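Q: Got a minute? One more chain.
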Amino acid sequence: MEISFKGKRALVTGASQGIGREIVKQLVKCGAQVVAVARNADLLESLKKEVPSIEIIPLDLSDWKKTEEGLAGVGPIDLLVNNAGLAILGPLTEVVEEDVDRLFAINAKSLIHVTKLVVKGLLARNAPGSIVNISSQASLIGLINHTVYCASKGAVDAFTRAAALEYGPKNIRVNAVNPTVILTDMGKLGWSDPKVAGPMLEKIPLRRQVFGEVHEVVDAVTYLLSDKSSMITGTCLPIDGGYVAS
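A: Always. Here it is, folded:
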């Protein structure tokens, strides 16, 4: 399937590592002009050395005012990938207020804010757009020691559906992908221990020996951003080997 984003400008958050970094590379391969946003300036600089054509914006998206300022001059955006995310894991009884605030600030609040800014720009230009939010399998099922994380990703799915409904008439599509564990640095945080990973792997109908690969998420995101998925909006797509179907 040939996918071209020639003439399109894309904004990717959480772009400095993991899934976000690979999404940036893929979008550039497909012809997009990419703006990469992340907190870690050093990692962004290393990404720009790999992909010199991109623009980079070091930015803490949890800060509402700084986000407004940082993205004020970003220019027209046609495609948005809300990938920035945070995981803080542990029993509910050990959750502290700071954990809740940090998780929702990144996983939900910043996603809502960046989407708002991009949608306002699309409406001002009367332009179509495509937005993909990186949610999680954790929005669809309960996971031990993931209570607040599950809640924050549940908010992502609910927002995705509501935004799709609101802006579908303007030809702005909003979808989400819901990966199972992907062994990025964040994925390894909760799933490196075979005693923890084993029971989860056994519940995946495809019966693979490892969790999802980064490229499997990147491929789905690329498709949902593209015109090949022009009749798809408001969808939360599990990339989980059938886990939530079992």
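A: Residues 9-238 form a domain with the Rossmann fold fold (CATH 3.40.50.720).
Q: Perfect, thanks.
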